[in-house]
Amino acid sequence: MLCVAGAFTGFCIELVIEMISMSREEPANLFFNGVAGLFVAASFVLGVYAQMEQSRSWSRRVRRRLVIGLSMNVLTLVMVSANFTEKRTVNADQVRAVAAEIQAAGAPLPEDTALVQPGWYGELQADGVVVSVSSFPERSSASRAFNRRVIRPVSYGTLTVVNLGRPEPVVVDTLQVGLVLDSGEEAESFAVKPLLRQVSQNHGLLLRLAEPQELAPGGMLRDIPVCREPEFAWERVRGVQLKISGRNVTVPGRMMTAEERQEALARAVTPLPPAAPPAVSVTNLSAEAWFKDL
């Protein structure tokens, strides 16, 4: 009787598990599946014990009960094994699906430490003032380093202003610039101060972000962050507007490959060849006349 009762209990638990699994369209609950397995194991042990007792005192009624109990045990054991196997298969499929999604979404690319990298570059030289704007790829060392200093990810660029030859001071009125897009619209860069983390390495940058900035002759305002949302389309930018000494200035530029940036850098650092001295002909001139002319 205990063998039949254990088999019947395990079978009923397994039926309930299957109905819940089908209604929710999800794998069977492993805990209750294990409970059903325990009842099957207990019923099987009791059935073996009853069969051993049958060898000493045979009973037709006990034999019929053992046939029913062991048959239900076998059926329940098949269902329990199937549920355990299905759970493992589903987990493996889910792991593969998640791995495929991560691969499709694109895992973070390794940091690019190249000295010269592709990006947007613009430069303007006028009235002794040089203004340059550069953008950096998302995976570049400069971009990754700056993003570790802010509270949320941004697309990173820099602004540099140099007063090379203007005798009076150059005043940069605001450090937020306008990005002129190919559609004619203007996208303003983010305010940098609210983005910065409260860490010691940002102290110097906070001092440089004071507005307005006044540059004496020979002074330079370097690497002021120009930030937009991640994956900002810099290729759409046709120019960068900023206000210098009360005037709006537009810095033209475009996207450049690493090779073009390298060539531009090489041209910038290569000194021009010295001008050849004018040729002096001494034909038909005496030495005294030549020295006087010299």
What is the topology?
Blueprint: H1 2-24, H2 30-56, H3 60-105, E1 119-126, E2 129-135, H4 141-147, E3 155-163, E4 170-172, E5 178-181, E6 186-188, H5 203-208, E7 213-215, E8 220-228, E9 237-244, E10 247-256, H6 258-269, H7 287-293
Helix pairs in contact: 1-2, 1-3, 2-3
Can you put this structure into words, describing what you see?
The protein has 294 residues and is α+β, with helices and mostly antiparallel strands. The protein has two domains: 104 residues; 150 residues, Immunoglobulin-like. The protein is 44% helix and 22% strand. Helix 1 packs antiparallel against helix 2, helix 1 packs parallel to helix 3 and helix 2 runs antiparallel to helix 3. It is rod-shaped, with a radius of gyration of 41 Å.
The chain-level structural class is alpha+beta
Oligomer: single chain
Gyration radius, to the nearest Å?
A: 41 Å
Which term fits the overall shape? rod-shaped
Strand content: 15-25%
Q: Provide the residue-averaged pLDDT.
A: 78
Q: How many domains would you count in the coordinates?
A: 2
Give helix and strand order, one letter per element, not per position. HHHEEHEEEEHEEEEHH
| CATH fold title of the largest domain | Immunoglobulin-like
Just name the CATH architecture of the largest domain: Sandwich
Q: Could you name the CATH class of the largest domain?
A: Mainly Beta
Task: Order the strands across the largest sheet as they lie in space.
Answer: 6-5-9-10-1-2-3-8
Low-confidence stretches: 268-285
**How many helices in DSSP terms?**
7
Q: How many extended strands?
A: 10
Cα distance spanning the termini: 132 Å
How helix-rich are the residues, as a percent range?
A: 40-55%
